[in-house]
Amino acid sequence: MFQLIRCYITRYRVEGIIPESTSKLSDFLQKPENRVTWDKSFKVYNMVQKIDSLQVDFPAYPSSSNYIRGCNHACGYICSPLQENPAYSKLVMFVQTEMRGKLAPSIIEATMPSNLISFLLNVKDGVKTHKIPSGRGCHDHNGHSSFLKKK
Questions:
Q1: Count of beta carbons in the 10 Å neighbourhood of residue 27
Q2: Cα-flanking dihedrals φ and ψ of residue 22, to 5°?
Q3: pLDDT band, very low/low/confident/very high, at 137 (cuts 50, 70, 90)
Q4: What is the DSSP pairing of strand 85-99 with strand 76-82?
Q5: Are 21 and 80 in contact (CB under 8 A)?
Q6: 92 by DSSP, 3-state: which?
Q7: Average predicted confidence (pLDDT) for the chain
Q8: From CA 130, how far away is CA 35, in angstroms rounded?
Q9: Which of 33, 116, 117, 124 is the most exposed place for a label (fewest CB within 10 A)?
Q10: What pLDDT, on a 0 to 100 scale, did the predictor assign at position 144?
Q11: What spatial distance separates the first Cα and last Cα of the chain, rounded to whole Å?
Q12: How many angstroms separate the CA atoms of 139 and 151, rounded?
């Protein structure tokens, strides 16, 4: 017997201007352990286990009706210098989420956009309140991090 399960993958793109250089913003975003200090949607951050897999059964955290599990498909950020002012960055975030369980897609569609806008506002505020050291790294034109090289 076969069962058809409808999957609702929702794709979002949000972008904003952040008053910080691309290299400093990129360094800021690459530290998830610090995110709890500036992202108001985070209460706790614990690295349970680093994995490279699409689906995980983790005995220490079994499925529960108290939580809704989902899957984030390819997601990420693009930080690029603002053409008009390279001291500022354009931050573009892509999210593809597939919530499972009994959560209606209309609830996700109603709440996700405001959550993504809140994330950008939290980044903007976090960059202001957290001193980002300069000179830690530099970024070449394609956005990949590299260490400063002596000339």
A1: 19
A2: -60, -40
A3: very low
A4: antiparallel
A5: no
A6: strand
A7: 76
A8: 11
A9: 33
A10: 37
A11: 67
A12: 16
For residue 61, the 8-state DSSP code is S
Q: Which helix (H) or strand (E) holds 99?
A: strand 85-99
Tens digit of each residue's pLDDT (9 = 90 or more) over 91-118: 999 888 877 666 777 887 888 888 889 9
Q: How far apart are CA 82 and CA 104, in angstroms?
A: 38
- From CA 16, how far away is CA 127, in angstroms rounded? 13
Q: How far apart are CA 46 and CA 18, in angstroms?
A: 27
CA angle 18, 19, 21 (to 5 degrees): 95
Helix (H, G, I), strand (E, B) or coil at 114: helix
Q: Which pTM was predicted?
A: 0.68
Residues 8-35 pLDDT 10s: 677 889 999 999 999 999 989 888 778 8
CA distance 9 to 113: 15
pLDDT class of 2 with cuts at 50, 70, 90: low
Residue 144 class from Cβ within 10 Å (0-12 exposed, 13-18 middle, 19+ buried)?
exposed
Pairwise CA distance, residues 19 & 81, whole Å: 10
Give CA–CA dist 75/112, Å, rounded.
Answer: 14
Structure tokens at 42: 């985070």
